[in-house]
Amino acid sequence: MQSVDNQALTSQYLALVEQTDPAGDGRGLAWESMERGSAWALGHPAYFSYVPRLLNRTSRDQLAAIAETTHGILEKVIRAYLDDPAFCTLFRFDPRVHELIMAPNACPDILPYGRFDCFFNETTGQARFVEFNADCSSGMNKTRESLLADAASAPAKAFCEACATESDIDELFGGWVRDFLDLYAGACENLGRARPEHPTIAIAVCLDADDVPLGELAEYARLFAQAGCACSVCDVRDFAFDENGRLSCENPLQGEPLRAVDAVWRFCIVVDLLAHWDECQPFLDAMRTGDIPLIGGFATQLVHDKQLFALLREPAVQALLTPDERAFVEASVPFTAFLDSPNLDLAAVKADPARWVIKPTDWYDSIGVYVGAEYSPEEWADVVDRCREQPGPSPYLVQEFCAIETTPVVPLYGTAADATASVQEYGCLTGTYVHRGRFAGLYNRLGPNALVTDDAVCIVSPTLWCD
Predict the structure, then answer these.
(1) What are the pLDDT digits (tens) for 413-462?
(2) What domains can you pick out in the chain, each with its CATH number?
(3) Measured between alpha carbons, how far is residue 41 from residues 35, 37, 172, 223 in Å?
């Protein structure tokens, strides 16, 4: 059966917004729902769209193929790094990072979860990647809460009566908990010991990250508890590791004190560990032993660090891939180079600002990202020189700027203007979640300017899959 066009689905929904909520009262109620929820950031509820992103089965199949192909490529890169010392020399890692990557880990999957962010063209089914996330791949709770806020509205109810819809919320939450416990069972088998009936799980975070989503993690902790586990959220600096090999946390950020941790879900990124290296040593010493399964091991840093974009076309990486995978990289990964590379045509980068974006290899939330289109040629030349001369905590990359794909939204910012806000075309960054190599859902971040993830104006939108 042929899928309904995505644009037609969105037009149908927008017509229902006009018909069922002409005064905009439902928008205020949706915002109040978001205020009552747990998806808060920077002191306010997450901004979101009153209109979900509506995608048909064809788009779902395309996105699943994109996500799962990407996962397969990234697993090959990780495996090559772990197995081949010569391959390691391609990467510019702090020696401490290399040591962590090579630490033993009983988890049976080397890339158990991730979120791969791209601009997805709904007409062609093609993707252009912006970044790969494998550590602290968040956003699930914003998606969940915005879906709940929209679902109670009159247009959503009318649309769902007329069209069969599904979401990925169960897969993103309950599905990940089930996968985590399967991975833990596999790790216990690899370590030659029985899995405890009621294991103790620590979700390891670092509060110096820009915005640790504790509301999100509280939902996961609740689901772990339902599955028979003790689970608490702990800052990596608050762990203790004793001579008996016991990892504990007496002062968790959420949950009860943990006397002996059986497994860790790493929700902190390596750049934050480096910033607090000495304070993290008890936690890191425990992980170095390999005796406590780490779900989301340090080897995933190979994926999280953006220098991988500059290396995917290197002969040593290309040799790992099938012809189809090499074609996929060529089509979906924008040209990327180290900004200090002697082979980079620096004059060409300075001459055409709109073609380029500069970003650090290892950071998050658009920190240190410079979009050339937002600068004059003179300003851009200064940015290029400054980033080359003062690279900061991680080297800078220059990357071909990807054309932004847009989708209609009705943005809600919690102001009086929400009630009469018109439909707008926002750029949409599509994050594809992957659990154990399987496509698990989407995270949509949208914004009105070239930096789609600008916190001041960026919104989220839930996804509804439509038949």
Answers:
(1) 999 999 999 999 999 999 999 999 999 999 999 999 877 888 889 999 99
(2) 173-302 (3.40.50.1760), 335-401 (3.30.1490.20)
(3) 11, 12, 20, 22
